[in-house]
Amino acid sequence: MHRLYDINGWAFVATAVGLIALMTLYPIGKSLWLSLHSGRGVILEFAGVSNVIRLFYDPMFKKALWNTLTFLAIQVPIMIFLSLAVSSCLNSSKLRYKQWFRLAIFLPCVTSLVAYSILFKSMFELDGVVNSVLMAIHIISEPIPWLADPFWAKITVITAITWRWTGYNMIFFLSAMQNIDKSIYEAARIDGVSPIKQFLFITVPLLKPVILFTTVTSTIGTLQLFDEAMNITNGGPANSTMTLSLYIYNLSFSYVPNFGYAATVSYVIVVLSAVLAVVQFKAARNK
Amino acid sequence: MNNKNKVFSLAVTTLLTAGISAKSLAADVTVWAWDPNFNVAAMNEAAARYKKIDPSFNLKVIDSGKEDIEQKLHTMLASGITSSLPDIVLIEDYNAQKYLQAYPGSFLPLQEHIDYSQFAPYKVKVMTIGDKVFGIPFDSGVAGMFYRSDYLEKAGYTHKDLLNITWDRFIEIGKDVKAKTGISMLTYDINDVVLPHIMMQSGGEWFFTPEGEMNIANNQALKETLKTIKAINDAKITRPTSGWSSFVGSFNAGQVATVTSGVWIMGSIKSVDEQKGKWRVAPIPSLKLPNAKHASNQGGSSWYVLSTSKDKEATINFLKKTFAADDDMYQTLLVERGALGTYLPASVGYAYTVEDEFFSGQPVFSDFSKWVAEIPQVSYGMYTQEVDNAISAEIPALLSGDSVDDVLKRVETALKYQLM
Asked: Does the N-terminal peptide bond of residue A237 adopt cis geometry, omega within 30 degrees of 0?
């Protein structure tokens, strides 16, 4: 009887397992094998770990890694904090037209990555709407070269990703907040705890698992940052928005193609994601 | 819908699609090209003409963006899945060696079919490996300085004042124009390579020597180019742009007085009817080098036949009878599309004397064809894109005052590790 169940069970999952093996496991294994090769286009030779050694000398890789980590270190905290703040405002019982706000803040993340990138690019042009508005309200007297200056280009990309993903993370926080028992807040209010302290000492600790989850997914997302860097600034100016994923793209499609080395760089992203996730789990547990 | 119906309609659809694909596989020669007003139009013109020779010939041009084509070509050639590759593909000259060397055997050598002495030598060089020549040279990227005659006149300059000037003089004029009209002299995109490429090639050098050695730290033309770029920026006569559309947008909106680019930019310039009669073309300014020319090249591309082509004979015959033979076709392409071919027998003819109303009656193509002959020959090699990116990384340091020698030394060191 047991055996029959086993066979039946395996038969049911066989299709899924087969597909996963074919579509996911095989490419993972193949790319690992590929990362041990180097060469030009289809002329690949076995190169062992020389690709890994090359990483340490490759200035463009270092630049891309540094940029990616900069985006990560600045953008993820800002975004997580923003989504927390926004969702806690939206969770307030005093707020009217809540659905509308929720919809407005969530809408960005249903737009296509390329479409919104192109929109941001045109908004942040020298004579784009952002500069026009800032000049009209006299915050700046000269247009800011959002896309032509290495520093401002980074700011533009960070602004874009934050706009795109804040609403997405907000949804997780909102649903988690609705699960927090209202009586805790009531007790706090009776004890005279200010709303800000309620937020810091009740909401945030209770949301810890969700904060951890959003941080990990955002970290992985930012490590894979590609569409925005490609479409808003194309890695420029002066490679200031060159990310690891864009570098992989360049290694395969813009430069003389070296698919082996490109695979090695993509494994850097895998390793980084894994390491950062472990670090974040550890940090969360220790608190 | 019940199950029987579903099966039936599925079968019908399968049959239909099978029928359609079988039919399209039979006769069509497919081409991948970008720019519907230029390359695609040229291909369609050629096909229409070839149909008179061979009525059974059918050509299908698939029009997509240049980057999409490059990417698709890479993935398909690398994966070895050749069934959806076209018969003919358009490749930009800077990228040609990269494809030819990274995917050996994927392109058909044509030296036995085509008389390459009939094409501009610099174009043939781009597609040669050893004794094999691949592809059919197409358009030239001969450079010119397009300028707004109305703005320049307002500042007191005539066409004569812009002939055979140096970049230093260009900057002086630019300052004057900016002071008198408030219009910037040119656009500047910190990421862009068009202007540096034009300047460097006009000085007769490239990032690599003809022997394939890296030529950066001691490249006089590149040094002068970077010095000039810095001087142009210091003079505050530029309008910053970012990317292709804002570049085109700024001259279409009349925000700059000059555009220095390959001849292929003409289509974009002429796209604004209200600016008719306000543009003219002058030769590009020269670098301060003894052998620097007032002529250079930017871009340009050529047709390549893939060795997986299903009907090689028809494909080669088609190209041979059109792009390597039809003088008259090139005249039409020139007048209608501004496409300046590199097929030498076609470089004289009625089209070259046509006076263009858009350029105040200037016979622009007779000028451009003169400059074609003066373009210094360089060999692009495979790594242009890599070097461009490495230099672009140092441009902010250059603009903030680092010496050109230091900058180029850093670029060369960086590239040594990157290209290993």
From this structure: yes
Cα(A90)–Cα(A86) distance, integer angstroms: 6
Specify the CATH number for the domain of residue B275: 3.40.190.10
Regarding whether B181 and B58 lie in a shared domain, the answer is no
Q: Are both B401 and B265 inside the same structural domain?
A: yes
Q: In this structure, is residue B353 part of a structural domain?
A: no
Q: Do A170 and A85 meet the contact criterion of CB atoms below 8 Å apart?
A: no
* Complex ipTM tops 0.90: no
The answer to whether residues A127 and A72 touch, using CB atoms and an 8 Å cutoff, is: no
Interfacial A residues in 234-273 facing B (CB < 8 Å): 234-239, 250, 252-257, 259
CA B372 to chain centre: 14
Helix (H) or strand (E) holding A73: helix A59-90
> What is the 3-state composition of chain B as percent helix, strand, coil, each rounded to the nearest 5?
50, 15, 35
Report whether A262 contacts A251 (CB < 8 A).
yes
Are B99 and B234 members of one domain?
Answer: no
Cross-chain Cβ contact B392/A40 below 8 Å: no
- Within this chain, do residues B268 and B366 fall inside the same structural domain, yes or no? yes
Q: Do A150 and B396 touch (CB under 8 A)?
A: yes
Structure tokens at A61: 């890789």
In chain A, what residues touch B190 (CB-CB under 8 Å)? 148, 236-238
- How far apart (Å, rounded) are the C-alpha atoms in residues B109 and B127? 9
Domain end residue (candidates: B317, B347, B377): B347
Domain residues for the domain of B110 are 13-139+309-347
Side by side, the strands of the sheet bearing B58-63 are B58-63, B28-33, B88-92, B301-305, B136-137
pLDDT beyond 70 at B7: no
For A94, the token pair is: 């005093």
Beta carbons of B389 and A57 less than 8 Å apart: no
Contact B240 A148 (CB under 8 A): yes
Cα separation, A167 vs A163, whole angstroms:
8
Residue A178 has φ and ψ, to the nearest 5°, of -70, -15
Q: Is residue B355 part of a domain?
A: no
| DSSP tag of A105 | H
d(CA B206, CA B167): 19
pLDDT along chain A (287 residues), means of 10: 81 93 93 91 87 90 94 94 91 84 90 92 89 91 87 94 93 91 90 89 90 91 92 87 94 90 94 90 73
**Across-strand partners of B214?**
B208
| pLDDT band at B16; cut points 50, 70, 90 | very low
pLDDT of the residue at B185: 96
Q: Is residue B1 part of a domain?
A: no
Together in a domain, B328 and B407: no
Residues A246 and A235 sit within 8 Å (Cβ to Cβ): yes
Query: Over the range A1-29, which residues count as b (16 or more CB within 10 Å of their CB) and which as e?
Result: eeeeeeeeeeeeeeeeeeeeeeeeeeeee
Q: Does B382 touch chain A (CB under 8 A)?
A: yes
Q: Are residues B46 and B173 in the same domain?
A: no
Q: In terms of domains, do B368 and B220 share one?
A: yes
Q: Check whether residue B129 and residue B229 sit in a common domain.
A: no
- Name the CATH code of domain A59-286 (choices 1.10.287.110, 2.40.50.100, 1.50.40.10, 1.10.3720.10): 1.10.3720.10
| Span B140-193, pLDDT tens digits | 899 999 999 999 999 999 999 999 999 999 999 999 999 999 999 999 988 888
Q: Is B32 within 8 Å of B90 (Cβ atoms)?
A: yes
